[in-house]
Amino acid sequence: MSVLASRARALIDPDALRGNLGALAARSGTPLILPVKANAYGHGLNLIVSLAAAHPDVWGFAVATPREAQAAAALNTGRPVLLLTPPTPAEVPVLADLGVRLPVASLAEAAALPAHARAHLKVDTGMNRLGARPEEAVAVGLELARRGLLEGAYTHFASADEPDLGFAHEQLRRFRAVLDALPPTPQPLLAHAANGGAVLSLGRLPGMALARPGLAAYGFAPPHLRAHAPLTPVMTVQASVTHLHTVPAGETVSYGGLWRAPRDTPVATVGIGYADGYPRGATGRAEVIVAGQRRPVLGRICMDQLMIDVTGLTVQPGDPVTLWTQRELTVTDVAAWGGTVEYEVLTGVGERVERQVGETS
C-alpha cells in the first residue's frame, strides 16, 4: 500500500543542530547531555537522537518519562540515556536492564536499585520540584557510593535565564557543598547543573563535567543572552494549500465571522490547525509566508485548517505555506501572537506533522 503524503511538515536542519551543539559545548567547556524529552522539544525524538548521537560534543540524552527513556535506549546509539524524573519501583529493573541512568533522591530509592544500576543523585537546590534537599542529599550520595552505583549528581537552576543571577549563584553554592561532601568514586563524578540559560549566562562552571542545554540546543535563547553563542532555530514548519476559493465582498471567514471580506478576496485553505500545534490564540494576529510573501491568517484558526489571503499571488493546491522558519518569521513570532512561549509551541507540534530532514530557510 502506498504511503500518503502528510499535509504538514516539520523540516529539521541538521547543520543548525550541529552548530548549536558545538557552540553550547564551547561555551560550557563540557560535553552535553541533550534533552530530548517531549519528543525532542517537538522536533522528533528518533530523528534528533539519530542526528545528535554522531556529534562529538554529545555525551548522552536526557528524557522526562520512562517511556521516553525506553524509546531513546532502543535506538542503540551507544550514548547514555538519563531519566530526569523518578520511575516507579516496577519500572526500575526494566530501565536498569536497558542501561538507563536513574535519578535518585532518597535512601528508599537507593535501596530499590539493582546492583547493575547507574545512578545520578538529584539535588534540590531551590527549584522545589524534585530531588533531595542538600542536607539529605549527602546521605543518599554516600549510600549510592558505598554500593558502587553513583555515576553522577545534578541539580536544576530556577532562574539562570533571568538578568538577576543572584539566586543561580546561590543554587550553585549549595550544589557544590553537596559535591564536596561526597566521597571519591572509581570514575570521576559526572556533575551537571547548567540548563541552556545557565550555559549562556554563566559560561564555564568549575567542577561540572556536563551541561544540559534544552531549548538553546534547538536554537532559542532570551534576547539578553543571544550574544553569548551563535544559535540557529532548527525547525521550519510548512503545510500545503488544500483548497482555493474567492470570498465575496461582505462575507465572513471561519467560526464566529471574525473577519469580513472588504472586497472579493482570493483565499487559500491550508492543512494545519491547532490540533497540529498552531496556536488558536494567534487568531487575528498570525501571518504566514506563501509564494515568498507574508500574508495574514483570516478569521479564527480551526482544529485542522486555517485560511489565508492570497490576493495577487499565483497559488495552486499542494503549494507550500510556511508557518514559521529560521529567520524571517520565527516560532518566537508565532508564540507572541498566541500569547505563549516557544517551548509550548514547539512541544505542541502534533503527530500529524511529519518530521523530515530537509532544507529550511
TrEMBL record:
PROSITE patterns the UniProt entry points to: ALANINE_RACEMASE
Cofactor: pyridoxal 5'-phosphate
Residue numbers annotated as active site: K37, Y255
Chain positions found as N6-(pyridoxal phosphate)lysine: K37
Pathway assigned to this chain's UniProt record: Amino-acid biosynthesis; D-alanine biosynthesis; D-alanine from L-alanine: step 1/1
Pfam families: Ala_racemase_C, Ala_racemase_N
This protein's UniProt keywords: Isomerase, Pyridoxal phosphate
Catalytic activity: L-alanine = D-alanine
All residue ranges annotated as the Alanine racemase C-terminal domain in the record: 234-358
Transmembrane segments: none
Gene3D superfamilies from the UniProt entry: Alanine racemase, Lyase, Ornithine Decarboxylase, Chain A, domain 1
The keyword Isomerase is annotated on this UniProt entry: yes
Assigned protein family: Belongs to the alanine racemase family.
Protein name: Alanine racemase
Naturally occurring in which organism (per UniProt): Deinococcus aquaticus
